Amino acid sequence: MTSPLNPDLPTFNLKQLQAEIGYSFQNPKLLLEAITHSTYAYEQRQPDCLDNERLEFLGDAVLDLVVSHLLYQNAAQFSEGQMTKTRALVVCEPTLAKAAIAMNLGSYLRLGRGEAATGGRKKASNLSNAVEAIIGATFQDGGYQAAEALVGRLLAADLKKAIAGKLVYDFKSRLIELIQSTRPQAVLKFVIVREEGPVHERTFTAQVLLDERALGEGSGNSKKEAEQQAAQEALLRME
Predict the structure, then answer these.
(1) Which residues carry out catalysis?
(2) C-alpha dihedral over 113, 115, 118, 121, to 10 degrees?
(3) Model confidence over 166-207: pLDDT tens digits?
(4) Is the pTM of the predicted complex or chain greater than 0.90?
(5) Is 83 in contact with 71 (CB distance < 8 Å)?
(6) Nearest 5 degrees, angle CA 227-CA 231-CA 234?
(7) How many CB atoms are closer than 10 A to CB 106?
(8) How many CB atoms lie within 10 A of CB 160?
(9) How many whole angstroms separate alpha carbon 149 and alpha carbon 170?
């Protein structure tokens, strides 16, 4: 049995995906759009086959607002700067891709033949973009409360870890990869600009420089931690 909305997608898949995300769409076409990659839409060349990029744009903004709201409610001890850094840990590709993997989202994506053949169902970028698109679709279909409930279900555990300081990613590697892919001729380096405190309780301050221009700064109890904080700030600025 196939879906009248899309003969390539079995009806049970849409129902199953809605069960996975915990939300039933009044307009299932929005969910279908949210899982449609641009390569698939391009190959179909049908005016009613839309890719998920517009919903991803909407979902990105909704996700920022929802996570900001949840942080405001659940991290009263955090300053604005702490909330910004914590939000960046949650609203990022690794966290969203992990949420996608947990609900087996890759198997539902509608991909072009080439994208599917090159491992597109496992690409973190495709997965995280689809999660944002689903959040956007949920907001469009059911409003803010529905979107907030969805984000809560998908990201509650990671938000809790982030607030507790237990959600850690390799920002340094991500920054290096980003610069190498976008500005391969640029020189990126990390330098320790300050060391303070007694030997047993040292605080290090690191800067990340792009072509000798400061891109981010961070502090920590080790040089590695300071560099990670500097890289995170640099990513925040670039994003």
Answers:
(1) 60, 132
(2) -110
(3) 887 788 888 898 898 899 899 999 999 999 888 877 889 999
(4) no
(5) yes
(6) 140
(7) 19
(8) 14
(9) 29
